[in-house]
Amino acid sequence: MPERNGHVLLGVNALILGYLPAAWKSPRLTADAFHSGDYWRQIGAIAERGTLDALFLADSPSLGNPGQDANPAKLDPTVTWAHVARHTSHIGLIATASTTFNDPFELAERILTLDVVSGGRAGWNLVTSRDPQAAANFGLDGVPTREERYARGAEFADAVVGLWDSARTGQEFSLDGEHLRVSGRLRPPASPQGRPVLFQAGGSPQGRALAGRLADGVFTAELTTETAVPHYQLVKDAAQQYGRTRDEVKILPGLLLSLGSTEEEARRRSDELHEASPAAYSARWLSQAIGFDVSTLDLDEKFPAEVLDAPLDPATFTGSIGFRESILQKIRATGPTVREYLRETRYSGSGHGGFVGTPEQLADRIEEWYRLGAWDGVNLQPDVLLEGLEVIADEVVPILRRRGLYRHEYETSTLRGHFQAAGPSA
Questions:
Q1: Cα(263)–Cα(360) distance, rounded to whole angstroms?
Q2: Distance in angstroms (rounded) separating the CA atoms of residues 273 and 347
Q3: Rounded-to-integer distance, Cα 215 and Cα 150, Å
Q4: Quick one: which H or E segment has residue 160?
Q5: What percent of the chain shows pLDDT beyond 70?
Q6: What confidence category does residue 384 fall into, taking pLDDT thresholds of 50, 70 and 90?
Q7: pLDDT at residue 349, as a whole number
Q8: Calpha distance 363→402 (Å, rounded)
Q9: 225, exposed or middle or buried, with CB in 10 Å at 0-12, 13-18, 19+?
């Protein structure tokens, strides 16, 4: 395996209770866990015990569909992370927020405020959003086209970065774009880390260009190293094309987890959690992800060409291009029946990659992908957040430390510092 010095970046995508709908049945949880301050304090404490680099938390300005969303109700991540910041001292706190349904001045000030009160540990994960219900909540007749969303998103990112810099320079920032007009200077003090860390989510060509130009990190979806390695290089190349170094943007794909002391135990755990989740959950999620109603297919036949080879119609498909392409590429490569693929998603993930196994096997996966240049780190997404996070902090991290792939103590105090101290790009 190729040598690659330095340590991986480890994040956890805090999917409220866990990535599977049945997570709420954990005996560790109370009925009010997701909006309990003590629950979120525990999340921060466990993550910091494992010296993790960052926690991610998504905003969703609408109630989700329980048939496709394991956590249909969500809290404002900046407020939640401000509470966690009070009880922690090193863990990075990244809020996912939409450029479609927010105002750039207000969001820039909200993220910078979190950054200041946390001592330089805040980040923003930029998404363009595609939810019709959220659009209705904001008085829109529908979701803007993909081109409109990405064009607005690029202007929005420029505005937020410029406004963050205005707090440092004291100079007013102005932007007169096609989608946004912004003029002003932020009120909070300058960021303790220069500016908050900026993440871009997704793997579309527009997203890669935005990541190469401005982002410090990319939260992407990858199922195989055959697709992850080329995507990694494309983003790094884009950074260089914009006059940046390859190390200035870090790649952290998501990875869905079910962990056990043996592989058999982990698979049994995954099966039980899936079976306790709503019937047809996987089929509904897959239908939404690829833009085709999977329930109309014969479960014991392979996916037809009309699904695998259908051209993407941006006018009708509003989902994630990165998720869709990673799923279809894997189906093409492995040729499963519909039933086989839905069963296998229990172990191999959905749009994000999946992992079912032991902490040692997970460390193997992290090391292999890191040394191959498929990622700079990973955003781990446990099936049940509280329980899975404890295994990551107390069992997975020590294995990575013994292999020289992870630090023993925090060496930096800001989120940007954590990123700069990580291993160099492949």
A1: 10
A2: 12
A3: 14
A4: helix 146-169
A5: 96
A6: very high
A7: 59
A8: 11
A9: middle
pLDDT at 319 over 90: no
Say if strands 217-219 and 197-201 run parallel, antiparallel, or are unpaired: parallel
The owner of tokens 């409220």 is 16
Quickly state the pLDDT bin for 315 (edges 50, 70, 90): low
Pairing mode, strands 173-176 and 181-184: antiparallel
Q: How many angstroms separate the first and last alpha carbons of the chain?
A: 13
Mean pLDDT, rounded, of the chain: 91
Q: Within 10 Å of residue 258's Cβ, how many Cβ atoms?
A: 27
Separation CA 56–CA 71 (nearest Å): 15
Rounded CA gap, 39 and 41, in Å?
Answer: 5
d(CA 293, CA 164): 43
d(CA 144, CA 129): 9
314-324 burial, b if ≥16 CB within 10 A, otherwise e? eeebbbbbbbb
Q: Which of residues 257 and 61 earns the better pLDDT score?
A: 257
On whether the pTM is more than 0.70, the answer is yes
The span from the CA of 150 to the CA of 5, in Å, is: 36
3-class secondary structure for 347-364? Answer: HHECCCEEEEECHHHHHH
Residue 43: helix, strand or coil by DSSP? helix
Residue type, 159: A
Dist CA 56 CA 125 (whole Å): 8
Count H helices and E strands in the chain, helices first.
16, 12
pLDDT in tens, 159-190: 999 999 999 999 999 999 999 999 999 999 99
Least confident of 128-137, 346-355, 392-401, 406-415: 346-355
In residues, how long is the chain?
Answer: 426
Going by pLDDT thresholds of 50, 70 and 90, the confidence category of residue 2 is low
- What is the maximum alpha-carbon separation in the chain? 64
Query: 140 CB contacts (<8 Å, ≥6 apart)?
Result: none
d(CA 204, CA 318): 12
Contacts (Cβ under 8 Å, ≥6 apart) of 106? none
